[in-house]
Amino acid sequence: MAGVLDTAATVSWIRAIGAVIAEQEQHLTTLDRTIGDGDHGANMRRGFAAVTEKLDGEFADPEEVLKTVATTLISTVGGASGPLYGTAFLKGSMAVKGRAELDGAGVAAFIRGAADGVKARGKAEAGDKTMVDAWLPAAEAAEAAAADGADAQAVLSAAAAAARKGAEETEPIVARKGRASYLGERAIGHRDPGAESTAFILGAAE
Amino acid sequence: MAGVLDTAATVSWIRAIGAVIAEQEQHLTTLDRTIGDGDHGANMRRGFAAVTEKLDGEFADPEEVLKTVATTLISTVGGASGPLYGTAFLKGSMAVKGRAELDGAGVAAFIRGAADGVKARGKAEAGDKTMVDAWLPAAEAAEAAAADGADAQAVLSAAAAAARKGAEETEPIVARKGRASYLGERAIGHRDPGAESTAFILGAAE
Amino acid sequence: MKKLINDPEDVVRESVQGFGHAHDDILTVFEEPPFVIARKDAPVAGKVALVSGGGSGHEPLHGGFVGRGMLDAAVPGPVFTSPTPDPILAATKAVDSGAGVVHIVKNYTGDVLNFETAADLALAEGIEVETVLVDDDVAVKDSLYTAGRRGVAGTMLVEKIAGAAAERGDDLAAVAEIGRRVNANTRSMGLALAPCTVPHAGEPSFTLDETEVEIGIGIHGEPGRERIAIESADALTDRLLEPILEDLPIASGDDVLVLVNGMGGTPQSELYIVYRRVAEVLAERGISVTRKIVGNYVTSLEMQGASVTLLKLDAEMTELYDAPVHTAALRWGL
Amino acid sequence: MKKLINDPEDVVRESVQGFGHAHDDILTVFEEPPFVIARKDAPVAGKVALVSGGGSGHEPLHGGFVGRGMLDAAVPGPVFTSPTPDPILAATKAVDSGAGVVHIVKNYTGDVLNFETAADLALAEGIEVETVLVDDDVAVKDSLYTAGRRGVAGTMLVEKIAGAAAERGDDLAAVAEIGRRVNANTRSMGLALAPCTVPHAGEPSFTLDETEVEIGIGIHGEPGRERIAIESADALTDRLLEPILEDLPIASGDDVLVLVNGMGGTPQSELYIVYRRVAEVLAERGISVTRKIVGNYVTSLEMQGASVTLLKLDAEMTELYDAPVHTAALRWGL
Ligand SMILES: Nc1ncnc2c1ncn2[C@@H]1O[C@H](COP(=O)(O)OP(=O)(O)O)[C@@H](O)[C@H]1O
Ligand SMILES: Nc1ncnc2c1ncn2[C@@H]1O[C@H](COP(=O)(O)OP(=O)(O)O)[C@@H](O)[C@H]1O
Ligand SMILES: [Mg+2]
Ligand SMILES: [Mg+2]
Ligand SMILES: [Mg+2]
Ligand SMILES: [Mg+2]
């Protein structure tokens, strides 16, 4: 990946997400079977397969790519993750409106928009054992890296590392949102599937 | 058992049947599960438990004992074996009407009456893989023994041995009556549960 | 064996009690002799009465079909075991209005013999009884050399249509005749993906591994004639339909009723996948599906599997099938 | 995994197609966007319309409740996955007569969010939407700290009673109000003896050994809050009833509706054993069971288990529950 995310590089990144998600479908499903209802892998695969099909089209700028991802996810994923990832990409895209390419700060703005969007839409707080626990640290890490002058790729890497750590840290806690919340103490020791898929999305370009 | 079956000895024999059947319930059920519907053990246990409860009453002669067995089986067993054993004891009892005690010939008459009754009621022939395959050779063996002057106990023993052999010989054949007939060739190699219970009934006094 | 039961010995009694309580608006349960489930308003003056019964474990058959427009009484035996003559006789006496009683009997040795005795006893008490034997299961071949075809899911169609005939006022002979006509035009065949466990047996009636299917199963957990490797729902449905269509005299232009019946443990969504294929095949052959019913009606405890039944309809059978019915398991027009 | 299916990808499509064909007298299936099951005569002039939906695998919920007196449309998502906003919006538009649409939504994050988006989009097109959230499952405690109580079997009661209110001509606010009133007076709790397998997952959602029972399961194959050693049906029923009776403000002399619901793979006979115990306990407490319904209504594929639901009735709810209904899964008075 280049130091900036132009339209083509944004498309490549999304394509890479599609590949990672397809590869990790079973893993995500297994996580979701343990503390949810076992469909997160299939949901994400279905959504990003539809997204990938749209990537052959013409896009004016990164915002348009990211908005297409958003609307496609909203209309193909369903479940909790569909509206939440839809909102993430929608609010993220709105945060980079008008930019022909995303530098480090642009990527950080996208991730912050996405993180805040997910948090607002799902009404989850940090520590509720949801994808918010990956998005929020990712946004902070991205902003810190961008402030240090990191380029697009480096900002995305910093965000991915933080998301992965955030996903891991969902393991020891009980859930307060999503299906896992029904399990009470029994969710302890298991990773949140949505936090895991967020880490895959942010890490797909690596 | 004595050389003749008086009323008390008839009651003892029936009581012994109840004990054997209770002991063999699981075995009969297993046979029936393999080529039938898995209830023969429970059916027989239910029936002879009810019969046993009736044995404390007063009986005028062996016929009355045997008729009580018949009506009790008819009204408690159900399934195919209920009416068939009911008929066996009913027709058998009619064959010994008026006898205060059964000598060898009397026992043989009972068994012949029972065998012919079962055959007529169920419309099964020898070799159809049913309890008829135990009753018919038992009747023949009983008559032969009685003709040789055997006493009640010896006649019953001869009948039991023949019934046991008849039950064994149901193994290699296909069934033409009862539930096992639905299985075609797949019934081959398995013993008919009703033939087995007939052998237990006739052998209970040993 | 894991079941929602108390003592295995009490399964039928407690279940019938619960059933009676849940449906006390349409029926009454008598516990002695055990058990008779009778229509609340029985005997209905002047009406021919219908009595059916057999082993328990096939619910909603038969108790679920007691009520206006269908059965007057049902006699549930122990699980998978025909009831004895006593309750059959009691049921027959309880519902006879003087117009006679039709016994609808599934063709199993035990059911036939016990109903036969009960009919003899009823006759001795002056009650006229006609017996309609149901034997719709084409899985049983060579019926000359067996106990004959079994009565399976088609039984509910005989009960529905004969029940409507009785309700409209047909006499004893006519009700029995239409019942026999339905049976003569009905064919069924079933399969199992997983067996059931009789409570007092405690072990499954047969075992299947993760890739096996039993074709031609009966409704008592008895194994079928053939065990094959699992195939797609469409291919399995074709295996059920083929022997039915070979046996039932039916041609392009004919009207049929399709019944896709679950064996108890099959999700409804799967039954509709089977129904979809049946409709597809019949459409290809130019046969009109004019009535259809999909659900768990004649079951085998928690067995996983399904059966397909076709009934070749005529105008009278169609009209009687459509007639109002109000039972626990079938209800329309009322 | 052994199922009567073709490709796991096609389960919902093929099942809904079969369902549509089997019930083409009362409903129409639209496949694009996938899927909308609409009442045949929708939109009904002047009538408030009811739309529900959610993941598939709970059949007959929701499609089985489409028809006169109940839902105007149902939107089945993939197995256990909420549908996306597109078909919800399509359904809303298809059934709106101008009198407005009530969305009946089970309280799961996915369902809530997708219906929310669809309602926003409908409003943007000038359609008034009221949402009734169903959250009857008392298994979920501390609801302040969770996604809140789940919507489970009580959903069918909300759909029945609100559907009858719409049918008699109530306006949008009134239909939504009675739906919320039913929900507020309904409590449910379920258990599983054996889990279910989502077709595309291929493995059971949880595993239980031969002696274990999950108490407090949801309807998506999610495990419950507690795993215990199996007990008698009566003891297990008490475990379901207790938290319901603790939570529902109910007293001696009150009227209740009892729903004993099977999870899909439970024989009917076992559901009646559970019902029997519920009736016994309520009788002891002086609570009158004035309505009762037993069967597989809100299922979890082939899961073995059951749930108990109590609805504290008032005169209006009773009258609306009794009102005629004609759907694939519930029918009376028509
Ligand atoms: N309120 C919420 N806020 C943020 N994320 C949530 C919320 N509820 C659920 N999630 C996320 O959604 C994930 C589950 O997605 P998925 O399995 O696709 O949907 P569903 O839960 O409807 O089956 C969870 O692992 C969690 O990360
Ligand atoms: N027509 C028949 N004639 C003689 N015996 C028969 C006939 N049909 C069945 N039987 C006997 O009945 C036995 C089965 O009895 P049981 O299992 O108690 O009844 P069911 O078959 O109704 O479950 C068979 O093993 C067989 O010996
Ligand atoms: Mg999920
Ligand atoms: Mg048997
Ligand atoms: Mg039997
Ligand atoms: Mg889901």
From TrEMBL, chains A, B:
SMART domains for the chain: Dak2
InterPro entries tied to this protein: DhaK_L_YcgS, DhaL_dom, DhaL_dom_sf, Dihydroxyacetone_Kinase
Entry keyword Kinase: yes
EC number from the UniProt entry: 2.7.1.121
Keywords, sorted A to Z: Kinase, Pyruvate, Transferase
GO biological process, one term: glycerol catabolic process
GO cellular component terms, semicolon-separated: cytosol
Domain DhaL: residue ranges: 8-206
Pfam families, sorted: Dak2 (PF02734)
Chain segments annotated as coiled-coil in the UniProt record: none
Example GO molecular function: glycerone kinase activity
Protein name: Phosphoenolpyruvate-dihydroxyacetone phosphotransferase, ADP-binding subunit DhaL
Provenance organism: Agrococcus casei LMG 22410
Lineage: Bacteria, Bacillati, Actinomycetota, Actinomycetes, Micrococcales
TrEMBL record, chains C, D:
Single Gene Ontology MF annotation: glycerone kinase activity
Recorded superkingdom: Bacteria
Keywords annotated in UniProt: Glycerol metabolism, Kinase, Pyruvate, Transferase
Domain DhaK: residue ranges: 7-332
Pfam families assigned: Dak1
The protein's annotated pathway: Polyol metabolism; glycerol degradation
Keyword Translocase among record annotations: no
Any one GO cellular component localisation term in the record: cytosol
Complex and partners: Homodimer. The dihydroxyacetone kinase complex is composed of a homodimer of DhaM, a homodimer of DhaK and the subunit DhaL.
Protein name (Swiss-Prot/TrEMBL): phosphoenolpyruvate--glycerone phosphotransferase
Organism: Agrococcus casei LMG 22410
